[in-house]
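Now for a sample.
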Amino acid sequence: MEQGHLSFESAGGMVPAFFAKPASPAGSVVVLHEVWGLVPHIEDVCKRISKLGFTAVAPDLYWKHNELLVPEKIRAAMEGVWNLSLLERRDINRVREALAKKGLSHEIMRVATTLYNQDFRDQMLDDAVACVKYSYERTPRVATLGFCLGGGISARVATRLSQLTACVVFYGEPPDTLGVQKIRAPILAIHAEQDEIINSKIPEFVQSVLASGKDLTLKVYPATRHGFFNDSNRETYNGAAAEDAWELTKWFLSRKLRQ
């Protein structure tokens, strides 16, 4: 297995990424990181994918804000907005108000307002799409695999690229009805039972999938919390659910990328 760092071209410049590549890849998987960024856990996921026979590429979606968007600052910002809905978090004034009430610093406020800035969200999606296109230049089949923030981006890449081979979403925000109608790739959606904010959008998503005749495999793991797959976060990690979800992911990727 070869592993290391590379960069690929996107609209905003050259995006850095971690990669892990087997000797003869059967396809590629673009791994889209959680809100914590391109941390060692995501690099470990890439290595695990490489052992399955696929090239894994994980773009650093925070590459323009590496000094600001670091895990400890992100954790403080997320705790500050945790009681806000996804819609409320996209209202920058509501975000500022929530953080001010908690007495958080100006820097933490900058972290939160950056994370929920729509232009920044659009840039991350553009970079993810560019990474998929980069991967298609090297293998004939490409899937996306995203967690948390990256899970939502994984699904949105599927709304942008009709040629995407497959899409895996771990507890990510699902696309709206219009987005679902644009999807051509089969989707594996994995969710945690105790994840009220994300799960509030699942019924509408499933209804849209059924109405549009899309290929969806969905599993909800009982007694788990958002982020249960991440074994570096002991607060939310659930070993049994993570192991089962990985087996399901392996089955799905092998079925789609080895056709």
Notes: The mean pLDDT is 96. The longest strand covers residues 216-225. Residues 118-136 form the longest helix (19 residues).
